[in-house]
Each structure stands twice: as C-alpha cells, then as structure tokens.
Design a protein that fits this description.
Helix content: 40-55%
Strand content: 5-15%
Number of helices: 15
Radius of gyration: 18 Å
Structural class: alpha/beta
Largest sheet: 7 strands, mixed
Number of strands: 7
Shape: globular
Strand order of the largest sheet: 2-1-3-4-5-6-7
Distance between the termini: 53 Å
CATH superfamily of the largest domain: NAD(P)-binding Rossmann-like Domain
CATH architecture of the largest domain: 3-Layer(aba) Sandwich
Order of helices and strands: EHEHEHEHEHEHEHHHHHHHHH
CATH class of the largest domain: Alpha Beta
Length: about 300
Amino acid sequence: MRVGVIGAGKWGSALEYAMSEKNDVLLSSRTPRDLPNFVSLEKILECEYLIITVPAQQIAQWLEENFVYKGQKILVASKGIEASSGRFLNEIYAQYVPDEKIAFLSGPSFAVEVMASLPTALVVNSLSKETAEAIAALFPSFIKTYTSDDVIGAEITGAYKNVIAIAAGICEGLALGKNAAAALIARGLVEMHRFGVAYGAKSDTFLGLAGAGDLFLTASSSMSRNFRVGLGLAKGLTQEQILEDLGEVAEGIGTTYAIEELSKHNGLYLPIAKEVYKMLEGKSPKASLKDLLSQ
C-alpha cells in the first residue's frame, strides 16, 4: 500500500520505518527535511493511507491551514487533549474526516524501540471495523495489532497516561521509592478510568494495552518525555527550562491543563492530575506530595 506519514519527528520517523516493511511509505512534515522518501505535503496527501503525528496542541491549526481530504484512510498517532478548548482529537478531526475513515492508535510504543524492530502490541481504534482492520494490516511483523471501536477510551488513556507519567517522574526525582511509584501508577489508572467513564469510555480499555499497557510503560522510564518533565519539576525547574532541555514536545503538559478545565466543568475528583497542574504552575513538589497523602 502507499502510506504517507505526516510528521518527521522521532515518532513519525519510527512509524515510517515500521510501515516500510510491508508498504511503500512516504514522509512529510511542516518543515522540509533531508531524508529518504521525503516529499511535499501535496504529494503525500495523494496517498491512500495517512498516518498523522502532528502534536495535539498544533493539530487544529495544521488541519485548517494544510489538510485536504481526498478519501484517505487516516491513522492518528498523536495523543493528547487540546488545552485551549478541551477538545479530544476525534472532535477536532471530525470537521475534516468522516468517522468511518479515521482511526486512533494506542498502546505501549517508545519510538526508539520501534526503530530497533523490538516487539510490541498496539490497538487500532475506529468506529469502522473495516477501517480498523485495513490499517492494522499495514503494521510490520514485530508489532501485533488489535482493533477496537472504543475511540474515546483510546483517546483518554493515551492522553491521561502522559499526565500520570509526569507525576511518576516527580516521584522518581524526589527519590520516594518503588512502593510510592507503584502506588502512584495504580491510583493513576483508577483516576484515568474515573475520567474516562465520565465521557463514555469502556472499562475494559483501561485494563488493556491502551490503558494499563501504555501507562506502565510511560510512567516507569526516563525514555518517556513526560517522565522527564516530572524529573525536571522535582529539581525545581520551570516549564520553560524543562522544555528547552527536552528540545521536544511533551504532550502531557497541554493535556494537564485541558484535564484541569474539564474536571472543573464536570466536577470530577482527579487529585493526581490536579497536583500535576499545580506543580506546572509553580507549586512545590514536596507540598503537593503532602497534600496528596492527606487526601
């Protein structure tokens, strides 16, 4: 199949590499790159399948300025909730792509391990079984794929786990120990499930690859950008300093702000996300720890 990957960062490049096992893959991004198979946006929009990795906080503007729907089947491979509006990615894409032509990727998948052809298992989530199965068939032999129709569940798990990963990085940075880390991740899973159920997500999604699988990965390794955000906060660094050091997008930051606003609107009890928000706003991590232990 002719597959076009939009976004030439680490994750986009990893997906381009993976999909090349079975398909003819082209790559494009907002800025020109001197890379093999790199083509113009106009050319890549002609592909039958598109994989889009544009970050969540930038996708609305990118779609408005660049996207032309030509009947493509689309896999959204970015994760997050738009901070400025609280919109989920499926709500943003719905203005441009029919529901039956779009899918959302979830599950544990560090780019560096995908680039090394190390095995994992992922879920292709779509309201259309045909679209989900067609996209799942594109994946290489070292990635086992499952399909699901729980789009909102996949979106919430993929976004929320980055917030918990920030908290886990803070836990590691403060040297609170493995007991604390396990407790945090377990309570984080409960918290994201509480949030997800409020939006109609299926409970099973939180126990599978999209939920527990991705959360356990992202919240337990410094390979995660969001985990490294937490390490920076534990050192007393500001958001600006942390992002400058990362040199990459950390989706958990914008998502934290979105969840804070959504929790106010829906009256949801989300103590970990709330404390991550307060720490991003300058609250002392030790003060947040004390408050979390008292709740």
